[in-house]
Input
Amino acid sequence: MKINSFQRYRRLIKAIIWVVVFIVLLQVAYFIFDHYETIRIERELAKQGEIIAPEPIMLFNLPIDSVKVVPGKIRSGQNLSEILLAKGISMTQIDEIAKKSILTFDVRKMKVNNPYYFFMNKKDTTKVDYFIYEIDPVDYVVYQLADSLKIYREKKPMITLVKTASGVITSSLWNTMKEQALDPNLAMDLSDIYQWTIDFYGIQKGDKFRVIYEENFVSGKSIGIGRIFAAQFVHAKEDFYAFRFTQNNEESFFDNLGKSLKTAFLKAPLKFSRISSLFSNNRFHPVLKIYRPHHGVDYAAPTGTPVVSIGDGTVIAKGYQAAGGGNFLKIKHNSVYTTSYMHLNGFASGISQGIRVHQGQLIGYVGSTGLASGPHLDFRVFLNGSPVDPLKIKSPPTEPISNANLKSFTANRDSLMTKLLAIKNF
Output
């Protein structure tokens, strides 16, 4: 009897223990479930919060949820006063805006067709909160008109991509760029780089180019060409390389041998024209109808096309040649070379006999004064007083890569050369 009572007692104790363990385990499980369910609910609430309170819509780095945006463009003859008066801004306020703006942006320099925007208050539709004017595709000026007047300049985020291009010329460099949907300004930049070494008025069919350059984008739209890093131009089956490099704190272009592309003389005194008459000892004159020497090169171009000096020098003659040259200039560059520019429509401001001019400086404009059948520039070069063919003079380059910079230049050139030669369609 005693034994059976003891066994029943042990069984009871075990049962109680198992019940206690089960209750504890159940509580632990509930605690774990409650913990993770709380985290899940918090996450769901956070997601709902994002939907309920979205990020504000921004324009010119300003929230536009509480305003109505009214765009416009500067019309010909329009000024800031006219624009702001139309939105009810008083002349007193406009005068204050113009005066306070002068250090940030001169409102007199607003350009035709440039965009502007009014941010009109939605609660009071007659009230202008902000006026924004786009100076260019990147820079803009903000006029905060709500409360106190604040004026500041900002920049739009700009993305710069390094790109490559190549092409074979069939008619002109400009047309080749257009045919390949490239920015035509790339043609102008290349002509600027090679203006000392290649005569772009003598470009031939079959000439070709490769180039590594930057293109800038704002809001996914191209706003123009940035820096050119390297180029190869094949003209008349001769290679002309150009590599950007900084020497003496100045960025310039050098060929594959480290020689500067800049020389004492430009290859031509004007841009984007055509050669209408070459250097000759016996040319038929279109006005006089006789054969006689023509010791220069005629560049046909529209009246008013800018003419620049091909090199540094001093103006030694300025006037009018009734005998045929019309308005003309003569510039002495050194003890050896003198250049002459004839049939000018007029002279640049400040140009007079005795003044010093610099390479690329504006000196006059294409015209048809004197004996001329149409607007063109008669350009002549004299070597020790004797006429020479302007297209055949070879000008010495300026300072080449120094010994101190040679190692750095070589590494830069080799890297760019590898990338150039990898460009296809060449």
